[in-house]
Design brief:
367 residues; alpha/beta; 3-stranded mixed sheet; 13 strands; 36% helix
């Protein structure tokens, strides 16, 4: 499935999209999670008071936020029927560019604005954290379950140094697995992506000298790598290509029925991606005054090491009072009742302290 270039409106189309996404998974747990999400959101919505605002909000950016935005947009309509929200999942880089160009009111981004792009933004930008989740290392190996990897091996795979599945470095971590001699098919993102930025930053932090490709929304990958557009595009390639490996947010990987490796964390434990292991990692983050932080390679035996976060970015000064009301209403929903949508989507809600700080910041949006 592709989400790039498609707007998700707060109407019946959003509900249909969410149902279609759930159908991508062959597991009954995904269907159950979708039902739980709807029930939790309906319960929260009934306790929420509608604002007096009416109008349309347009947002764009992070594909990591796609599942959350779809569910939130659909359920928010029952809370504030006068507000329509559209979200275009085009990747974090494009979303930030759209905000800088004033073509959207908010941008979904999985990483802060890079220093090289700061001059594009003519007004102060506020960061509203909205979700946390694991980056799954998804793989397609028939008969292989419970694959274990560490930062050094991941760095050598994604830099093209390790090229076959039975490489001694992989076998050492998986001594009982019948690893094939097949070539590793490397799958990466083609668009400017916060998932790429966070995955590569993890490798910088955890793999040391084994990782030489740096970090950023785009990476100069080995020439053998095949690129997919958006998280769903990359997941589709992994699912259809035997011997492949790629990095994709766990929510999308699960909905696509992909296997995910357990990754060795800084405590020396192999941990699988999950809501619980992402929450464990998030409990250790250090938050800056502007509410930016990194959840990658955090301490703790239960912490999944490739955990990341996503923000909705808005200008602190809006052109009119109506836009202020619209943004405060929708962002307030994402930070309030909307947080109940996350766990059933295999995403983690914000730690209470971060959520409270984000809610308090809503008053900083002015006209």
């Amino acid at each position: 499935m592709q989400f790039r270039g498609k707007q998700v409106a707060a109407a019946s189309g959003a509900v249909a999209a969410a149902i279609a996404l759930a159908a991508c998974s062959s597991s009954s747990s995904t269907t159950a999670a979708t039902s739980t999400t709807s029930a939790a959101a309906s319960s929260s919505a009934s306790a929420t008071t509608s604002s007096s605002a009416s109008g349309t909000i347009s947002g764009a950016g992070s594909t990591f936020q796609t599942n959350f935005q779809q569910g939130a947009i659909s359920n928010f309509k029952s809370v504030d029927p006068g507000i329509t929200v559209n979200y275009n999942a085009v990747g974090s880089s494009t979303g930030r560019d759209d905000l800088a160009a004033n073509t959207v009111l908010y941008a979904g981004s999985d990483s802060p604005i890079p220093a090289a792009d700061a001059s594009k933004f003519t007004k102060k930008v506020l960061y509203f954290p909205v979700q946390i989740g694991p980056i799954a290392i998804a793989y397609n190996l028939s008969g292989i379950t419970g694959l274990k990897l560490d930062a050094t091996v991941l760095a050598e795979i994604f830099s093209g140094k390790i090229t076959t599945w039975n490489d001694p470095a992989i076998k050492t971590l998986n001594p009982s697995a019948n690893l094939p001699s097949a070539s590793i098919n490397l799958e990466v993102r083609s668009d400017g992506s916060g998932t790429t930025a966070n995955f590569s930053q993890y490798l910088v932090d955890a793999a040391g000298s084994a990782w030489k490709l740096g970090t950023g929304s785009t990476i100069k990958w080995p020439s053998t790598a095949r690129a997919g557009d958006g998280g769903s595009g990359l997941a589709s390639i992994v699912k259809s290509t035997p011997g492949s490996i790629g990095y994709v947010d766990f929510s999308t990987a699960t909905a696509s029925g992909l296997s995910a490796a357990s990754i060795k964390n800084s405590a020396g434990d192999f941990v699988a991606p999950s809501t619980a292991s992402a929450t464990a990692a998030a409990s250790h983050v250090t938050v800056k005054p502007n509410l930016t932080f990194s959840a990658a390679d955090e301490p703790g035996a239960a912490s999944y090491p490739i955990t990341y976060q996503s923000w909705d970015l808005v200008y602190s000064v809006q052109p009119n009072a109506t836009d202020v009301q619209l943004l405060q209403a929708y962002l307030g929903y994402l930070l309030g009742p909307g947080q109940a949508l996350l766990a059933p989507l295999n995403l983690a809600p914000l730690p209470a302290s971060i959520d409270s700080s984000a809610k308090a910041q809503l008053s900083k949006i002015t006209s």
